[in-house]
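Run log // design_07
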């Protein structure tokens, strides 16, 4: 999976969360791993000091992660807007939006399919 395919899947999730869950379940092992790590790394890019400078303490790592994951779920245009203007990073997930994490869905699919936690990118795939 490449960067563009990752964002294409995120767009599906913006329109229909269940459809994205179905697509995640159909991913190959490699694409599932790639989707998971793209999600983790993309959200992690939003956790730097420049994005949190306007946040009022106290806030937890979980709060930051929830917001970063939410930003990724809004799609590439929104994500890039936050990247360009870090002070526009939301300080909380909007009410009613829920905290679905697509990396969590991918990790569950992987665990159900392979009986283990999702592998690191540089580890070999499990024997099928």
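design_07 sequence
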């Amino acid at each position: 999976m490449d960067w563009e395919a990752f964002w294409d899947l995120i767009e599906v999730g913006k329109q229909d969360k269940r459809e994205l869950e179905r697509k995640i379940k159909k991913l190959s092992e490699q694409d599932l791993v790639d989707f998971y790590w793209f999600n983790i790394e993309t959200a992690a890019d939003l956790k730097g000091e420049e994005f949190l400078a306007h946040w009022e303490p106290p806030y937890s790592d979980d709060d930051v992660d929830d917001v970063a994951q939410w930003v990724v779920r809004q799609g590439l245009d929104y994500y890039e807007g936050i990247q360009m203007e870090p002070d526009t990073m939301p300080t909380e997930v909007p009410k009613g939006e829920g905290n679905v994490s697509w990396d969590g869905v991918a990790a569950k699919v992987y665990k159900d399919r392979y009986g283990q936690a999702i592998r690191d990118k540089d580890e070999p795939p499990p024997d099928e």
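The mean pLDDT is 94.
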